[in-house]
Amino acid sequence: MLQVENLNYWYQSKSEPLYEDLNLTFDEGKLYGILGSSGSGKTTFLSLIAGLDTPKSGDIYYEGKSLKKIGLTRYRNECVSIVFQSYNLLPYLSALDNITAALEITHSKKANRKEYALEMLQKVGIDAEMAKKNVQHLSGGQQQRVAIVRAMCCDARLVVADEPTGNLDEQNSLEIIRLFKQLAHEQNKCVIVITHEKEIAEQCDTVLELKSKKMHVIKSS
């Protein structure tokens, strides 16, 4: 589904490249975990495959088409759902309205959007009463779960997440990873999770580590 070809990237303020000629393939129906030390470029890599930034050289293909040809705005709206580390929820809406708004913006084919959104929120411990609260009245961990559900509910076949369990306890972290697995295995989506937690990475089908400007496969199943 997603192919990274001869990818190179560097920050303008630094002479050292962050990556050198990365070549990777990500398939549908799989959950991927990407590990790496702080500053290794994990979040920047997610920005590139999510169409939020562009490589300095090389290319990224979605279903055989270059992101440049698809157009980054169209790609972000139709092809990929993103779970941001900073949540990026609409602060003036409730948890429920954040999800239904995303379903409307992405032209989701889901019927009964409100009921579907409530059902998905329930799966991560956000009940109907809590779902109707303004997101600013929710805790950081609750907001993170809303952001994760928002990405899961949309029809995009590629889901990318930046440290999605960072503010969650162990029980909720495992529940989120279980839902990501369901997305990959039952809905045949490609799910890519950036994490620093080895326990979370171990739950993934394939684990890659970003180290010394290269991406190494350390687990594959």
From TrEMBL:
Keyword Transport listed: yes
Coiled coil: none
ABC transporter domain mapped to chain residues: 2-221
GO molecular function: ATP binding
CDD domains registered for this protein in UniProt: ABC_MJ0796_LolCDE_FtsE
Pfam family, one: ABC_tran
Claim: Transport is one of the keywords in the record: yes
Protein name per UniProt: ABC transporter ATP-binding protein
